[in-house]
Amino acid sequence: MRWVPDLRVSPTAAQGRATALVALLATAGATHLVAPRAYASLIPRGLGDPRPWVIGSGVAELACAVAVAIPRTRRAGALATAALFVGVFPGNVTMALRARSGAGSALVRAVAWGRLPLQVPLVRWALRVAAEAPRAG
Questions:
Q1: Hey, how many other C-beta atoms are within 10 angstroms of the C-beta on 115?
Q2: What is residue 4's DSSP assignment?
Q3: Which 8-state DSSP code applies to residue 10?
Q4: What is the pTM of this model?
Q5: Which of 88, 79, 76 is nearest to 119 (CA)?
């Protein structure tokens, strides 16, 4: 008898991925609101005052966290999360470019540049949570 892997999604694993995404979003959202200065350097100068952008992205992360946490809205919340991860990518690029120009330590530069490729697995994670979300109706 030939062994064939079972490719069905374990409900426990799917719930774990969703819960971990909620934790990431809630933590990031809360830190945007509690310590907005830490995120100000991610906002491109052309967008003006960074504070409303930082607060807005924190609120968006918290809203996505709530939507992903509720099974009925998980699919929409996870899709919104994927879009949010794509939307903040220019801020990560801005941070990396500013770090390259000599601002900050070697560690800050390494973190700034290291974040860029991490957006891809974050987007894939959100899309997977969306695909595994309970079907409506």
A1: 17
A2: -
A3: P
A4: 0.84
A5: 88
